[in-house]
Amino acid sequence: MIRVEALTRTYGDLTAVDQVSFEIGTGEIVGLLGHNGAGKTTIMKMLTGYLEPTGGSIEIDGLDINTERQAVQQRIGYLPENDPLYYEMTVIDYLDYAATLHGVPDAERIDRIREAIVKTELSSKATDTIGTLSRGFCQRVGVAQAILHHPRLLILDEPTNGLDPTQVQHMRDLIRVLAEHATVILSTHILQEVQAICSRVIIIHDGRKVLDSTMDELLAGKRLLVAVDAGPERALELLNSVEGIASVEPMAKQGPGHRYVLDLGEEDDPAEAAHIVASRIATEGWKLYALQPERHDLEQIFSEISAQGGS
Ligand code: ATP
Questions:
Q1: Is the pLDDT of residue 167 over 70?
Q2: CATH number, domain 220-295, options 3.30.70.250, 2.60.120.280, 3.40.190.100, 3.40.50.12780
Q3: Residue located nearest, by CA, to atom 30 of ligand 1
Q4: pLDDT at position 217, please?
Q5: DSSP state of 198
Q6: Alpha-carbon separation of residue 301 from 267, 295, 296 (angstroms)
Q7: Which residues line ligand 1 (CB under 6 A)?
Q8: Per CATH, the architecture of 2-217 is what?
C-alpha cells in the first residue's frame, strides 16, 4: 500500500530525514518510534503531501505523491501533531466544514458526520464549542475529521500526546477499531504506545531508519524460561537432551519450583521447542509451574540503539 524509497528532507544544513525507505502493507498498524526531533513529523508531513521531499519517492496505492497528490490525499486521513482545530466552532460545525474540505458528497455528509461522531464517541459533545473541550476530546475531534472521507490510510502524529491515562486508553481502543478498516501509521516517542497497539515498529534516529521489525519478531527471544519441581541434578541432564536446546542454565529460585533458562539454536522455533520441553517434562512426571518464551524489552532495544547513535 505504501512504498517509500530513499526519502530525504533537509532544512538548510540540517538533514531531518535521511534516505529512509520502507514498505507498508494493507491492514498493518505501524509505529514510527523516535525521540523528539528524530524526524517523525517530517516523514508524516511528506507522506501526506504537505511537505515536499528533498529527495526520494513516495507511492501510495501505486500513486506517486509528486504527480497525483490530490488522489493520494483523498486516500489519507491525517491527524497532525497539533490539531488544527477551530476552537470557536462547535464540533458538528467543524466536522461539517472538514467534510467539505475532504470533498464528501453533500448527500452523504450527514451520515458521514454522524458515523465519525459515533466512532469517536463524541455524541455528548457534538454541539459543544471545541474551545471548551478537554485535550482528550479535542484529539477525538481531530480523529473524527480524519476519518470522515473513509480513508484507507490513517496517519496519526503523536495521537496520545498530552492525554491522561484514561484518555490514552480511549484513544488506543479507538485506533484499534479504526485499524479494522484502514492501514494505520502513528508516530510516538513512547515505547509502551508501540507495544500496546502496533504490529510493527520502525525506529527513526537522527533522521535515519535504524530498525524495522514486526513486534513479534522483535520481542520474541531465543530463550525459554521453565520452572519445574526437579532440581538441577535431575533437570539439567534431561533439559539438555531436548532437541533444539543449545544450553541450559539454572536461575535463582523465585516462586514455586526450580527455574531454568534454555537457550535455543539460531534456527529453532521457541513455540516448537516449548512443546517438546512440555511433553518431556510430562513424561518424567514432573510438576510444570511455568514455561514461556523470554520476551525482549522494547525499552532495552530502544536504549541500545540510542546509545549506539543508531549505527
Ligand atoms: P517531535 O516528536 O518533537 O515532533 P519529530 O521526530 O517529529 O520530533 P521533526 O519535527 O520531524 O521530529 O523534526 C526533525 C528535525 O527537523 C528537528 O531537528 C527539527 O528541529 C527540524 N525541523 C523540523 N521542522 C523544521 C523547519 N520547518 N525548519 C527547520 N528545521 C525544522
A1: yes
A2: 3.30.70.250
A3: 11
A4: 78
A5: -
A6: 21, 11, 8
A7: 11, 14, 16, 34, 36-42, 81, 189
A8: 3-Layer(aba) Sandwich (3.40)
C-alpha cell at 52: 515536499
The pLDDT assigned to 311 comes to: 42
Helix (H, G, I), strand (E, B) or coil at 168: helix
pLDDT in tens, 50-103: 999 999 999 999 999 999 999 999 999 999 988 778 999 999 999 999 999 999
* Domain assignments of the chain as residue spans, ordered by start: 2-217, 220-295
Q: How far is the CA of 295 from the centre of ligand 1 (A)?
A: 33
Quick check: 107 pLDDT over 80?
yes
The grid coordinates of residue 60 equal 501510495
Band of the pLDDT at 309, cuts 50, 70, 90? low
Largest CA distance in the chain: 77
d(CA 102, CA 94): 12
- Other Cβ atoms within 10 Å of 129 Cβ, number: 15
Tell me how far apart the alpha carbons of residues 191 and 23 are, in angstroms, rounded to a whole number.
Answer: 21
Rounded CA separation 180/183 (Å): 8
Look up the pTM and report it: 0.80
Q: What is the pLDDT of residues 239-297, one digit of tens each?
A: 999 888 889 999 887 778 899 999 887 777 888 889 999 999 999 999 999 998 877 66
Give the integer Cα–Cα distance in Å for 135 and 196: 21
Report which secondary-structure segment, H or E, holds 160: none
What is the CA(43)–ligand 1 centre distance, in A? 10
Q: Whose CA is nearest to atom 26 of ligand 1?
A: 11
Give the phi and the psi of residue 81 in degrees, each rounded to 5: -60, -50
